[in-house]
């Protein structure tokens, strides 16, 4: 996901990754998802933020994307 290997995932990188895996998401949906994970408020997801979110809330991410799409 981290295409430039800087230790962060931006909205653009996340959208690219999701589209590679046939997920149909809008820019707005991706930005909202980033906002939910971005504890530092820098507009991108660090490896720490990503791992923390996925290890503690695996099931809620499916729900988050469904909620965003509504």
UniProtKB/TrEMBL annotation:
<feature type="domain" description="EF-hand">
    <location>
        <begin position="1"/>
        <end position="24"/>
    </location>
</feature>
<dbReference type="InterPro" id="IPR018247">
    <property type="entry name" value="EF_Hand_1_Ca_BS"/>
</dbReference>
<dbReference type="GO" id="GO:0005509">
    <property type="term" value="F:calcium ion binding"/>
</dbReference>
<keyword id="KW-0106">Calcium</keyword>
<dbReference type="InterPro" id="IPR011992">
    <property type="entry name" value="EF-hand-dom_pair"/>
</dbReference>
<feature type="domain" description="EF-hand">
    <location>
        <begin position="25"/>
        <end position="60"/>
    </location>
</feature>
<dbReference type="Pfam" id="PF13499">
    <property type="entry name" value="EF-hand_7"/>
</dbReference>
<protein>
    <submittedName>
        <fullName>Putative calmodulin</fullName>
    </submittedName>
</protein>
<dbReference type="InterPro" id="IPR002048">
    <property type="entry name" value="EF_hand_dom"/>
</dbReference>
């Amino acid at each position: 996901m981290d295409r430039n290997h800087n230790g962060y995932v931006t909205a653009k990188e996340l959208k690219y990754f999701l589209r590679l895996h046939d997920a149909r998401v809008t820019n707005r949906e991706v930005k909202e998802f980033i906002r939910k994970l971005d504890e530092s408020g820098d507009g991108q997801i660090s490896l720490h933020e990503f791992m923390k979110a996925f290890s503690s809330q695996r099931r809620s991410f499916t729900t988050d994307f469904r909620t965003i799409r509504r």
